[in-house]
Inverse folding.
């Protein structure tokens, strides 16, 4: 039988705030154990008598995502307590949103194999992160509460993905959207972007929803893809053998490339949600919306193209499609540019001036980006446009152009100043060229002998010498003509 | 009743000694009977109304305090082997 | 000088102002007597250290500067351990002061110590303290009420002039009534809950125990302030409760409703009803209209309360796992986590606390939450609406504070349902988030104090104090020293 996968993604993204969600501890990167438990206070440690006070910034950031997704943003929402015992959960409950998420519905376009698709979202709600657990060799654990209380946005899709590729492409797009909005750093390695797919399979074309399983602790897109593919295969194999899929949580076993059900007691999952009595309802004001709207608009990407202004909501899918449709850029090049807004802006600005898109792209991708990786540099769009013009006029050869670029990058001087500083504007006089050619012919008896024997292409070696001796300033076609004249060719 | 108590103890991470169980179960049954009166009442609304007499929360600005927090708290926390708990990782 | 011990805070402030006694002098005297009588009443879990010279205070600093205050051990304090009356927090040193404590400290108040209570506030007799029971200063064989029993007994037994308590279902008013002092809870959110160790968050109020209404108003002027650390805080920033209390016009010709269903001889002891009828006549004589009103669903009050309150308690007490503080910290890592939880929580919580955690877990658990918890929320809403409706007709409500006077130590401890019945008159205010005050309503034939209670609509705290003051004056209900305490005072050598 043919099967199809039904996948939904649950993504937890750290919101990019300075303060924790419910207390005034600073938010810090929690990868290192070195400074464990430095950024903690009675509130995020769950001491007796403490109370939460919600960070407004996380609300604004969540609204911004809601605007991006075209979702319903709840003017009135409430918080709830989700109860379970775990050492990383200081209060014995997590303060989250349950019945009334701040953001409901919405959709996100993403691209798979160059094709646009749309994912429908279920909800996005505010909550708080837990402490970080460090497992010790003896099985005990150390706890770092620096992460406890860091604002989280949980973003959940409907079960809309039919393949691992779709799910991963969506997650990659969402990551870009969050970054471009400035809502989250969305870094998987640092744990600020955590994906938990849940997945079931069913006969292709059916609309039933079968028992689903959840895969946890996936730390890269490659692993998400592999684990989903493996899990799809595992579930199909079960059905093929007339067995049932049991609801469970799985982890990814990289060494054996299989998904492994965790050993768990399912009876324990009873979260006993109820409204958080310590927080009155969150009621959004017009000011909240205005601020979120303004910051959202600021993140919209505006592009001048062919005399028209094009606006792109923060993200990459639509912009990628645009460049593929309108330029000769390859998809991999677009991806590089969209991850590097400075480079993209430079490319577009230099194209505005020069109109030579492909050449601008080459300068930006091949010269600007590697140099910028070392140091910030001083290059402007005008530099790139000028260098392209100098090349087009035959005033610089490609080696010279790169030297000019380097000087402009390092010192920010104009391209023409760079050309004169490098001496590339001094023309070699006709008599000098004659003398230099004569000298080269005298110095290279063997080559000249080869030429005389009929190996005419050896003359290029002599041309190289002439160019070298004129420090590249001779015009190659003129030098070649002079050499051939003197050699009687 | 004892089974129910065992289940609740598991959820609440509590334990009753064998001596306690009998009496606890009896008193707990009395309590359940006591609060069962609530079931006899029929409220019209299915909605669960809010409890706090404050219509909207005030939020805090995104300004972290200058570290560290006032009042000393321990800086090292540990626990034994977690075992087969299913929860964790929000 | 020892006769000063029986004065009210405002009388003492006058003495301070007149230079008749310095606050630090009085504090030293206060502590000596507190210590002297403590073995009889046992009000305190922690008494302030002896021989530590108190700092001089500027009595112009605040409405109550220099007055010694005791603090229920359910409010966090940085200078005393805070136990919540529980083994699970034995020796716990909070890293922060509760907001109400901080405000008093900043206003220049002295703290006499931390008073005994039913563990986490769960009880009506202070017998559920994990440490020892407190004795009623009027009759040492009786309970002081609870859960703020130590707060009430410390004020009645001249161990403190004022006390901060907490009230989730009557825990300030009922012991105040049992001990013959004044107990006040403001509108929900009028005193910050920051630092109040949560029992049932939506019902928890910080409350005040004092010797008269004026002292309550003065204390409110210090601690009845908004707090950015409590998102449910909603106090008006500049309210002057003393001025409001003295505004006789605000209660001129007001109407007081008497709830018929709570004046029922089947529910209330005869001595309580007699005292209430006397109080009603006092009100009439003072020019108040008295109207008999009906409260529908009195039967719902306690089941509703005893669902919501354990539900929230089961949640609030989940944090006591011995991993970050309290008993069990630092965790013994050779035990598995499960063993650790059980080893810390089972012996750490007393019987009543465990019972309420389990009841709360039950009413919130899958399959039961709708029938119990959600239903109780709807009932609470209906009760609140019912009370609001009554306040359309009347300005205040009058009711007993408790169905009986103080009962004997050990009388009810084995019957939780009977113990819960003691809360019938007090849970209303918590369920409806309204202010309420219990005042001395004379003595029973056995010589035990009877409390009478007034309730006002939400946010009418100032007016409630004005009515309470009117009653206090009209009834001549001055604070009286319990005979036993008077005897101790007589024998006390300064």
């Amino acid at each position: 039988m043919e099967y199809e996968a039904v996948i939904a993604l649950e993504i937890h993204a750290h919101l990019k705030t300075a303060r924790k969600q419910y207390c005034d501890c600073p938010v810090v990167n929690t990868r290192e154990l070195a400074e464990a438990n430095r950024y903690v206070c009675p509130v995020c440690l769950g001491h007796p008598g403490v109370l939460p006070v919600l960070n407004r910034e996380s609300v604004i950031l969540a609204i911004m995502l809601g605007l991006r997704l075209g979702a319903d943003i709840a003017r009135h929402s409430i918080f709830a307590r989700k109860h379970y015992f775990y050492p990383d959960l200081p209060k014995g409950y997590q303060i989250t949103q349950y019945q009334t998420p701040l953001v409901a519905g919405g959709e996100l376009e993403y691209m798979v194999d160059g094709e646009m698709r749309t994912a429908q979202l279920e909800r996005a709600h505010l909550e708080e992160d837990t402490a970080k657990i460090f497992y010790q060799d003896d099985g005990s654990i150390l706890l770092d509460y620096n992460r406890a209380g860091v604002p989280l946005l949980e973003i959940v899709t409907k079960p809309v993905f039919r393949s691992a590729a779709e799910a991963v492409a969506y997650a990659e797009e969402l990551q870009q959207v969050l970054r471009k909005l400035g809502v989250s750093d969305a870094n998987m390695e640092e744990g600020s972007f955590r994906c938990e797919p849940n997945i079931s399979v069913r006969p292709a074309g059916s609309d039933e929803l079968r028992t689903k399983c959840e895969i946890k602790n996936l730390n890269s897109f490659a692993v998400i893809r592999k684990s989903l593919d493996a899990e799809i295969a595992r579930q199909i194999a079960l059905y093929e053998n007339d067995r049932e899929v049991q609801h469970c949580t799985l982890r990814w076993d990289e060494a054996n490339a299989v998904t492994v059900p965790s050993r768990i007691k399912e009876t324990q999952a009873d979260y006993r949600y109820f409204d958080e009595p310590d927080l009155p309802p969150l009621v959004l004001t017009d000011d909240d919306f205005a601020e979120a709207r303004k910051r959202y608009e600021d993140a919209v990407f505006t592009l001048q193209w062919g005399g028209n202004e094009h606006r792109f909501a923060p993200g990459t899918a639509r912009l990628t499609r645009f460049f593929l449709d309108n330029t000769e850029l390859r998809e991999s090049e677009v991806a590089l540019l969209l991850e590097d807004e400075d480079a993209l802006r430079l490319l577009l600005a230099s194209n505005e001036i020069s109109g030579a898109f492909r050449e601008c792209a080459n300068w930006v991708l091949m010269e600007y980006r590697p140099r910028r990786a070392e140091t910030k540099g001083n290059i402007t769009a005008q530099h790139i446009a000028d260098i392209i013009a100098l090349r087009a006029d035959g005033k610089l050869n490609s080696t010279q152009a790169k030297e000019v670029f380097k000087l402009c990058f390092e010192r920010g001087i104009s391209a023409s100043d760079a050309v004169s500083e490098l001496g590339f504007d001094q023309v070699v006089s006709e008599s000098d060229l004659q003398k230099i050619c004569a000298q080269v012919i005298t110095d290279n008896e063997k080559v000249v002998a080869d030429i005389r024997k009929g190996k005419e292409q050896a003359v290029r070696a002599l041309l190289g010498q002439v160019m070298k001796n004129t420090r590249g300033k001779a015009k190659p076609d003129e030098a070649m003509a002079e050499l051939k004249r003197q050699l009687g060719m | 009743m004892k089974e129910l108590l065992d289940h609740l103890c598991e959820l609440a991470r509590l334990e009753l000694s064998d001596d306690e169980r009998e009496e606890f179960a009896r008193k707990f049954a009395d309590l359940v009977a006591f609060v069962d009166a609530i079931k006899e009442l029929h409220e019209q609304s299915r909605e669960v109304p809010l409890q706090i007499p404050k219509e909207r929360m005030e939020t805090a600005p995104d300004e972290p305090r200058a570290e560290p927090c006032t009042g000393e708290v321990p800086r090292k926390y540990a626990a034994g082997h977690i075992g087969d708990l299913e929860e964790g990782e929000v | 000088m020892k006769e000063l011990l029986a004065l009210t805070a405002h009388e003492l402030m006058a003495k301070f102002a007149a230079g008749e006694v310095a606050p630090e002098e009085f504090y030293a005297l206060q502590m000596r007597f507190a210590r002297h009588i403590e073995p009889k009443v046992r009000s305190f879990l922690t008494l302030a250290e002896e021989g530590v010279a108190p700092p001089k205070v500027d009595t112009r600093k605040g409405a109550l500067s220099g007055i010694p205050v005791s603090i229920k051990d359910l409010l966090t304090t940085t200078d005393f351990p805070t136990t919540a009356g529980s083994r699970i927090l034995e020796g716990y040193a909070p890293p922060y002061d509760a907001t109400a404590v901080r405000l008093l400290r900043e206003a220049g108040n002295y703290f006499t110590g931390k008073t005994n209570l039913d563990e986490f506030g769960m009880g009506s007799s202070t017998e559920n303290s994990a440490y020892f029971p407190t004795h009623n200063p009027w009759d040492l064989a009786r309970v002081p009420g609870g859960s703020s029993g130590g707060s009430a007994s410390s004020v009645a037994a001249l161990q403190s002039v004022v006390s901060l308590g907490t009230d989730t279902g009557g825990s300030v008013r009922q012991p105040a009534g049992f001990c013959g002092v004044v107990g006040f809870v403001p509108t929900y959110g009028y005193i910050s809950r920051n630092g109040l160790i949560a029992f049932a968050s939506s019902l928890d109020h910080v409350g005040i125990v004092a010797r008269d209404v004026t002292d309550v108003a003065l204390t409110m002027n210090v601690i009845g302030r908004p707090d950015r650390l409590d998102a449910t805080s909603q106090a008006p920033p500049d309210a002057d409760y003393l001025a409001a209390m003295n505004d006789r016009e605000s209660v001129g010709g007001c109407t007081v409703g008497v709830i018929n269903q709570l004046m029922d001889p089947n529910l209330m002891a005869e001595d309580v009803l007699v005292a209430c009828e006397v109080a009603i006549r006092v009100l009439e004589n003072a020019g108040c209209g008295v109207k008999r009103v009906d409260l529908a669903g009195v039967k719902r009050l306690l089941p509703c309360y005893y669902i919501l309150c354990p539900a929230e308690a089961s949640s609030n007490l989940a944090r006591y796992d011995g991993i970050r503080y309290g008993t069990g910290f630092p965790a013994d890592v050779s035990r598995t986590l499960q063993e650790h939880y059980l080893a810390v929580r089972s012996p750490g919580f007393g019987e009543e606390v465990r019972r309420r955690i389990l009841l709360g877990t039950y009413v919130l658990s899958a399959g039961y939450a709708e029938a119990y918890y959600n239903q109780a929320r709807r009932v609470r809403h209906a009760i609140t609406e019912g009370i609001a409706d009554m306040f359309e007709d009347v300005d205040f409500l009058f009711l007993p504070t408790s169905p009986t006077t103080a009962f004997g130590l050990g009388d009810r401890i084995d019957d939780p349902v009977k113990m819960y019945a003691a809360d019938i008159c007090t849970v209303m205010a918590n369920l409806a988030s309204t202010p309420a005050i219990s005042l001395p309503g004379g003595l029973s034939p056995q010589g035990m104090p009877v409390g009478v209670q007034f309730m006002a609509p939400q946010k009418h705290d100032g007016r409630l104090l004005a009515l309470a003051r009117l009653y206090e004056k009209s009834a001549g209900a001055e604070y009286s020293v319990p005979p036993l305490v008077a005897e101790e005072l007589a024998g006390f050598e300064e």
Q: What stands out?
A: Residues 364 and 370 of chain A are 9 Å apart (CA to CA).
